[in-house]
Amino acid sequence: MKVKNMLDLTNTTSCRRLEGQVAIVTGGAGGIGKETARRLFAEGAQVAIFDAFSDAVESAIAELARDGIDAMGLTVDIADPDKVARAVKSVSDECGGIDILACCAGVRPLGTLFETSMEDWKLSLDVNLTGVFLCAREVGRHMAEQQSGSIIVIASVNALRGVATQVAYCASKAGAVGLTQVLATELGPFGVRVNAIAPAQVETPMIAEQVGEVRKKREERIPMRRYGKPEEIAGAVAFLASEDAGFVNGHVLCVDGGYTTYGIHP
Ligand SMILES: NC(=O)c1ccc[n+]([C@@H]2O[C@H](COP(=O)([O-])OP(=O)(O)OC[C@H]3O[C@@H](n4cnc5c(N)ncnc54)[C@H](O)[C@@H]3O)[C@@H](O)[C@H]2O)c1
User: Fold this and answer.
1) How far apart are the first and last CA of the chain?
2) Ligand 1 within 6 A of CB of 127
3) Is 168 near ligand 1, meaning CB less than 6 Å away?
4) Which pTM does this prediction carry?
5) How far is ligand 1, taken at its centre, from the CA of residue 26, in Å?
6) Which residues on neighbouring strands pair with residue 198, listed in sequence order?
7) Residue 16: in which H helix or E strand, if any?
8) Cα 258 to ligand 1 centre (Å)
9) Can you list the domains of the chain with their CATH numbers?
10) Active site residue 262
């Protein structure tokens, strides 16, 4: 199926809903994170990316710079409370506040119940759940104080469905959805909105191993019969960050080509 080309928003001034805002994008050197950084910048935000590996951060910042995007890059393990606190403070000090947190960092060790090691279980929970908790806790303090902000958690359709061989991943993403809901309740009174996005398969390095028959089988499970593009997730992040979503709080937005509504196709 032919997919329409994505809009190139980099040089347009027609859709700048985030003018003057400051955004942190975790996992900003990854597939969805980098596109999110691009999109938030295109809509007028100052962007800082956090990622775990310094070489990945450097090459992402260089790639964004080649496209005219001036982003800050910080090497941060989001599962480390002290590093998160220091990095968030440095962005806030440098930029004078934080308005948007897009939690895109993630890991996906595979394994059934009997195959999943303690190491993989812990890694999944540390990054996909504790990492979101730590970033939201630090950024949420600034947002609550300034009485505004938007936190967007990239969860997964696998938070809502039991996918065999993804025991640790599904559990960690379901936890991230639960966390989103409680944070929406706690931070809502401060004018801070917290929402999650549940993507189905998106073409990024995370699922690069899905090729040939493996990919075909997964595409058949998606009513739109294709994988998503990182830009399509970034567009949903920008919507949730913007005032267009000013009364959207505690929501899980499926960006999945219809995956979660799939019933039967006789
Ligand atoms: N690609 C998909 O099909 C898909 C589907 C549903 C949900 N997601 C979720 O979307 C998010 C983005 O995934 P992606 O597809 O861009 O994958 P990706 O592997 O391209 O990017 C993930 C990024 O997270 C970073 N990261 C990992 N551990 C970290 C840590 N401890 N601290 C800081 N950064 C860390 C990685 O270095 C990488 O740059 C993830 O949370 C993923 O679970 C992806």
Assistant:
1) 20
2) yes
3) no
4) 0.95
5) 9
6) 254
7) none
8) 22
9) 22-256 (3.40.50.720)
10) no
